[in-house]
Amino acid sequence: DQPGVVRFRHPADRSGGVGLGDRPPGRAPRRREGRPARKSAGFLEMPV
């Protein structure tokens, strides 16, 4: 379950941070803050 979710977040985060949790691409600038980006980066770093 976890590995599958991380895999889905990989492409979603690249789209615009949708992997963060149902976040539309319009919230892309929000991840630039570094707060949500760090959470996503941690998950992406696992598979990467």
Tell me about this structure.
This protein has 48 residues and is an all-alpha fold. Helix content is 65%, strand content 0%. It has three helices and no strands. The radius of gyration is 10 Å and the shape is globular.
String of helices and strands: HHH
- How many distinct beta strands? 0
Helical residue percent?
55-70%
Mean pLDDT: 51
Give the strand content: under 5%
User: Whole-number radius of gyration?
Assistant: 10 Å
Largest sheet: none
Tally of helical segments:
3
Distance between the termini: 17 Å
* Shape designation: globular
Alpha-beta classification = mainly alpha
Contiguous runs where pLDDT drops below 50 for at least 5 residues:
none
Would you kindly provide a brief summary of this structure?
With 48 residues, the protein is mainly alpha-helical. It contains 3 helices and no strands.
Highlighted features:
48 residues, mainly alpha, 3 helices, 65% helix, globular
Ordered list of secondary-structure elements with their pairings:
Layout: H1 2-16, H2 28-32, H3 35-45
Region (Disordered): 1-48
